[in-house]
């Protein structure tokens, strides 16, 4: 298959979060003739593909799941773009990974190249199967570089933001809506605080010469149980994206300052930021090969999980960040060819 045919093949295999079994089987069956059962290891609905031979280890990472369908049909091509669910986020990266693992010159180059195809990245942190992959294949910690093939607009994206979600509560007292003075409205009680959150400006934080923008955003809200009852409870979710200069504990302290005016809050989940690895010699060589600009990763990726294991990690892959989760998601075909070409040269031209 060509790269474009491979991408269309992947897009046409449904793999919403929690339903990755079929795509894992399809990828495994495609790579088994080349790598054999010893070189294609399945952990749940995730795969580790490649052989360790004592050369410097470079690991490639791509999640196989997509967000829920918004009614997209099969893969289609128009105006130099391939359209379909997951086309940019991140089946284009999976297609590049597959072709690198199938390329004879890459496989026989001066690196041990291993591909990790993992499930459940788009869902809750606790379900992400990359954790199980690392638990089962701890030798991946020996990687001199981990490349996450998320869409990056052709740039090298270094590090990533950490993330915290907090459930915030305002407490009132219920009453009949005809006699609101007998109660306390939890929804309107939250008004001044909600306005202050809406007025928060992104805070620039420079780490390793790259400017991350820290943001706190109310992303969900719920209050009231009936049209004729004064609501006694109003809850919302606050999503905090913090820069790599902070630990999770430090970020929680910073969040607590912003939540000082609420009645109650609880941290629902959190994930650390990923280190900026600009000084890594593999990153320097890839930057020189691609001529790509170095950008901060404004968002969270599994670069953070790799950083926790002291694996230097970067984000570099085909596709456009803005296309992720769009109903008419698409990827430029030339970005697919460019990412494959540069990564192939990275492995072959040592």
CATH class call of the largest domain: Alpha Beta
Main sheet: strands, sense, barrel: 8 strands, mixed
Spatial order of the strands forming the largest sheet: 1-2-6-3-7-15-8-14
What is the average of the pLDDT values? 95
What share of residues is helical?
25-40%
Radius of gyration from the alpha-carbon trace, in angstroms: 23 Å
Number of strands: 16
According to CATH, the homologous superfamily of the largest domain is: Zn peptidases
Question: Could you provide a short overview of the structure?
Answer:
This protein is of the alpha+beta class.
Tell me what the structure shows:
- The protein is an alpha+beta fold.
- It folds into 2 domains: 3-159 and 274-348, Aminopeptidase (3-Layer(aba) Sandwich), CATH 3.40.630; 162-271, Alpha-Beta Plaits, CATH 3.30.70.360.
- The chain contains 11 helices and 16 strands.
- Strand 4 and strand 5 form a beta hairpin.
- Helix 1 (3-11) crosses helix 3 (87-102).
